[in-house]
Amino acid sequence: MSGHAEVKVKIPFGNKQLDAIFNVPKKKLRYGVILTHGAGGDMNFPQLVSLAAYLASQGILCLRFTCKGLNVAYRAKAYKTVVEYLKLSDDYKLSGVFLAGRSMGSRAAASVIRQLSEDADNDDFIQGLICLSYPLHRPKLQSKLRDEDLLFIRCPVLFVSGSADEMCEKQLLESVASKMKAPKKIHWIDKANHGMAVKGRTEDDVMEEINVQVFSWLRENIELEHK
């Protein structure tokens, strides 16, 4: 992958350290994306690696990290630590950052944005939220929606979900989105399941669709911010 470098870092978190990797674009960076994984796997999950490399090749810094906890509050705490780390970083001075995650990672990101928006001294560092395969409900348990953080968020939100995601029924997400105060967009990957697998399409082909959608949404939101 040309056009960017990978830098491994360890981010202090309590008495532990979180493994993280920066994908650093060659050209001047003003904006970044923080990216984390779902309940299984880690920051080297192929979809995250693909998205991070693509964004960096387009000039957007990407910091992805691993946090193995299966408790969403714990994951959110780790995510918040990573946001602070990037905000205070002398190496990468950014105008703003977008929080992104896959599945449970997107729930953690939503939780962090809600928490930070409730802080009185909140500034405009966080520009938006990107949810890949947001797990709106457990499989076959559509009666209990995990929508509470989404309804409080006011920054722009992008959802990229499979139309056959067993943890995010299409009509339910559209209904939640209609109640959200935030500017939002949903991009449906046709016939994709929760893991973004589509019969008859390669993983690379699906990832290309996701990467292009995420970048074009980022570009629109960065431009809107600076018109």
Structure, explained:
This protein is of the alpha/beta class. The chain contains six helices and eight strands, in the order βββαβαβαβαβαβα. It has an eight-stranded mixed β-sheet, sandwiched between helices. The longest helix is centred in the C-terminal third of the chain and has 23 residues, at 203-225.
SSE layout and pairing:
Blueprint: E1 4-13, E2 16-25, E3 31-36, H1 46-57, E4 61-65, H2 72-87, E5 96-102, H3 104-117, E6 126-132, H4 148-152, E7 157-162, H5 170-179, E8 184-189, H6 203-225
Parallel strand pairs: 3-4, 3-5, 5-6, 6-7, 7-8
Antiparallel strand pairs: 1-2, 2-4
Q: Biggest sheet, in brief?
A: 8 strands, mixed
Through-space gap between termini? 32 Å
Label the structural class.
alpha/beta
Question: What do the pLDDT scores average to?
Answer: 91
How many H/I helical runs? 6
How are strands sequenced across the largest beta sheet?
1-2-4-3-5-6-7-8
Order of helices and strands: EEEHEHEHEHEHEH
What overall form do the CA principal axes indicate?
Answer: globular
Organism: Pavo cristatus (Indian peafowl)
Domain KANL3/Tex30 alpha/beta hydrolase-like: 33-211
InterPro entries: AB_hydrolase_fold, KANL3/Tex30_Abhydrolase, NSL3/Tex30
Pfam families: Abhydrolase_11
